[in-house]
Amino acid sequence: MLSLIFKHFITPKTVLTQMRSVHGIAQKYFMRDENISSATMAIKMFLMRHVRLSNGATRPTSFLRPNGLLQNVLIQRRQMSQLDVNTNVQNNVVLYKLEKSAYYRYMRIFSIGQLFGWSVLAFYTYKPSFWDIFYTDIKFKEFCYNHMFRLSTFICAILAGPIMFLVIYATCARSIKYIILNKGGETLSITTFHMRKNKSTISIPVDMVRCTADRTTGGGVLPIKIQNRSFYYLIDKSGTFVNPKLFDYVTG
Description:
Elements: H1 2-7, H2 12-29, H3 34-54, H4 68-83, E1 93-97, H5 101-125, H6 132-135, H7 140-174, E2 176-181, E3 187-192, E4 201-205, E5 209-211, E6 221-226, E7 233-236, E8 240-241, H8 244-251
Antiparallel strand pairs: 1-2, 1-8, 2-3, 3-4, 5-6, 6-7
Helix pairs in contact: 2-3, 3-4, 5-7
Protein name: Transmembrane protein 223 isoform X1
Pfam families: TMEM70
Keywords: Membrane, Transmembrane, Transmembrane helix
């Protein structure tokens, strides 16, 4: 078996000759498919380089090492695909939308309701004697024994209500409802589920918006960073990317 293999050994030149014929067939039948043509050209140039190295080069080509030529071809293809995206739109174009208005409306109602409930609890658990620790000679141990339950409930009420309200408020203010590329392609309009309607929509230049993660990766939320603004804006991946290619180009 080994003798047959060495007897019919295929040289790189033979492979190159066959690849030239394959490249001719690919150009004939797939001349409209730029991806196949580019891939065939990359393989052909790689084999030509391998033949030159085998005829007199001192450094062999490794198939495990990334080839710079192939990487350049892929980069050029990526750049050409980006140039195909036209951002100079004639009308406003919706890039993303999330239809969860009822969900965030219930969140706002809950935040106000729980704040009111904790406030009522704090009102009825408060006692003026809580200040005795500062104005009388009562010992701390005795003070805790007399007011431990009511005082702990009061402190929990005055802290839990506002903190939970602020968390829900910030979540609604940073959860994106719409992303719209405005006419001309220079600015973006971002609409959130903000509790205050006059602050729910902002218009910013396109170059101030950057997506910090890939849209196709795992996770349920896609973070968006806007310059000169604290915290991230959040895109729920369960929403609809109306123009995904344009979205990737604008926010990429």
